Amino acid sequence: MLASEIRRRYLEFFESKGSLRTPSDSLVTSDPTLLFTVAGMVPMVPYFLGEQTPPRASLTSVQKCLRTVDIDDIGDTSHCTFFEMLGNFSFGDYFKKEAIAWACEFLFEVLKLDVERVRVTIYKDDEEAFALWRASGMPERKIFRNDQDANYWPANVISDGPNTACGPCSEIFYDTQPSLPPTPDGVWDDKRWLEIWNLVFTQFSRQDGGVLIPLPKKNIDTGMGLERTAAVLMDLRGPYETDLFAPTLARLQELSGKKYTSTDDGVLDIAFRRVADHVRSTTFLLGDGVTPSNEKHGYVLRRIMRRAIAAGRNVLGFEKPFMTDVIPTIVEQYKEYYPEVGENKDKILRYAASEEEQFRRTLAEGTELLEGILKGSKPGDTLSGDDAFKLFTTHGFPVEMTAEVARERGVGIDRARYLALIDEHSEISGAGKTKEVMKANVAVQLLRSAGNPDTLFVGYSEEVASGKIVGILKDGALTESAASGDRVQIVLDQTPFYAESGGQVGDSGWLTSDGGAFDVVDTQKESGYWFHVGTVTSGGLKVGDTVNARIDGARRDAIKRNHTATHLLHKALQQVLGSHVQQRGSLVAPDRLRFDFTHDSAISDANLREVEGLVNEKILDDLPVQIFEKPIADAKKMGAMMLFGEKYGDVVRVVQTGDYSLEFCGGTHLKHTSQAGLFKITSESSSSSGVRRIEALTGKQALMRTLDQERILSDVASTLKTTPLLLLNSVEKLQAQLRDRERELTVLQRAGTGNLVEELVGSARQVGFAQVVNHQAVSVADADALRMLADEVLNRLKSGVVILGAPADGRVSLAIKVSKDLVDKGVHAGNIIREAAKVAGGGGGGRPDFATAGGKDVSKLADALATAERLVAEICGA
Ligand code: ALA
């Protein structure tokens, strides 16, 4: 069964049970505790928590997911970074009984899986699930019980938190090696059982101390991996053997000339699978608007892309960039179900091309640097983890490459140190957040139980403030002090640092005390506490110290420009596109802004220009930005825009920009719109279905981009020896010339000789009032060439009838072309060719001015041409 069929049947099955089908959400989640959508339930969290009302009490979806915890395993036969999760969800609608009964119905009746090969697990004392499985016919020996580490979602939530909606789960496994002797009852053999579906019974609210309170509404969250299900259904070894990967692997084989065996687990097969997986993830991430960078989402994407490029280059032997040759295959395969990859194909290809080009340069430079470091080393030496880390973070040179070059000289690398440094680094850059789903924050609970009040944020008005250190978090645990070089997170009782929220990134800056200094690279908040993330740069800091906290003011100013501009953009979009425009996501960073909003179709250039113009107009109007704190009811009365997915307290902060925009917002803003300087939209794309994304710049970035583009334009113009104003003209002229040349070239190539056209024009005879060329063009390769030759001859002749015939591929091929003036006088190419083709045992027809036909009998070609000419003569009065 094809994967697309499994998708279809799954959704239709749950629709038949009353669920509403919802489209996949973006891979980029708005959940602040995660970077990517790691499960089908991630977009449903606000519904589970009762913060939002779902469109129906039960939903079903196929969700794009990305998990990179296992990235180093990718290349084996079972792991994927990107995968699709089939899910069904109930919000107080159906519960355990239906979830289990329907899972059985779908697996055994719809997919017709072999019930003998299935085993299930349940939470150790979930007697209800046990009874329901038994009732559905599952023998007791096939039901296994596990503790909360395996059979609770989130894992270990009872002992470790967080305080959230949770519940026991039941997992369904399939025997992938039925040819082996059956495993004895009660024994679990990890290697042969593959988990295909997890049913979560979200029925409790976890409270402090691991107390579970039953939720008023009981929910269901399930997740079934499409890749794995496709594999077990077809008795295949794993996801890479299914039709989901077949076209990509075929393309990679075609391009590399190497063979994927699927049975041999050597480096070549591993590289094929790794490249196939990583290019697929790259396609989807770029399709969802992630672009390669050194931070967060972009960092993860860059890592995936670079691993693909390295494996493609080193093992599959691609000497030149190859990703853009593979991506179209993936786009073709997926664009029907995920239109965003089709819509963004050009952008995906552009980014893939530039990243690969850049990385290939890096590889060349990195190899040189590494050769320098390795100079003088002897076999048995070890390259330091710090060198490997530096090569990676500073030069982008991946550790796999370092290891390989080093290995050639018998030199090993200190991987443990390298990995420790990488861990710290990803913590700082935010990529480490993907590590755990709903990670418990023990530190927050400890701070709270020690009696610390929430951090007081004074950064709306102050850039500098003094604060007391109330906690230091190192490697996930609270500690008393930190020394120079330590990467830690510092909690203060009072701070001017804005913590990431509402799309606005966290501030960076400095904490200094009498005893030490700390560079803050990011600020996050958790349950009321502000965490300043960074490194101790000198001396030491300890809990109880008073520090001088100073934000990077220039960076904050740039952030403010983007935040105020985001409000103007939101309003301008509503004005130009309509009031259905609602914010769905936003990033306000120092160097750019990104705004996701509901709208169905791509935005025309004219509309984009209008939006950009409106925002710039409001900037020039120098509108005052005023901020009020108001009871929520009053704010609503003022007509302030509330944002989808946001929670609001009783008193809200309202940001009013002149009489133009009014929004609930906790962010930092300019005092006057003119401080934004200039607003420039840089891209418009699809973010997920029904959601568009605009990226834009303000201030210096906008100016620099404008200047850059001006420079590019003038460089291009001077290369073409013209001015920017006349550039379009010149390019059109060049394109026309190119088209002419191409056409001439094709005719020359196809006709075999340029003289043929000349010769045919010279052979024209007067037949009645028409000039006629009648020729058996034996040297023409195919019917297409014949048509082009006829075109070319008539072009030169201006007025006349061109009759051409040729034996091509063992058949007769005929073409007749008539100039317009003769068509007006009654010469009809289609009618003539019909008669002529009959003579050669064929048929055909066409327009009055041009027709082609074929015939079976090559020996009658001359007769057919004579017939055509006779008919022309009859009409033209010869
Ligand atoms: N949320 C559950 C999982 O991802 C279904 O396993």
Radius of gyration: 34 Å
Total helix count? 27
Relative strand content: 25-35%
Shape: globular
What does this structure look like?
- Helix 24 (783-797) links the parallel strand 30 (770-776) and strand 31 (801-808).
- The strands form seven sheets. Strands 1, 2, 3, 4, 5, 6, 7, 8 and 9 form a nine-stranded mixed sheet that branches. This protein has a six-stranded antiparallel beta barrel with strand order 13-16-20-19-18-21. A six-stranded mixed sheet has the order 29-30-31-32-34-33.
- It is α+β, with helices and mostly antiparallel strands and 878 residues long.
- Residues 428-440 have low confidence and may be disordered.
- Residues 39, 41, 153, 198, 200, 221-223 line the site of alanine (ALA).
- Alanine is lined by residues 39, 41, 153, 198, 200, 221-223.
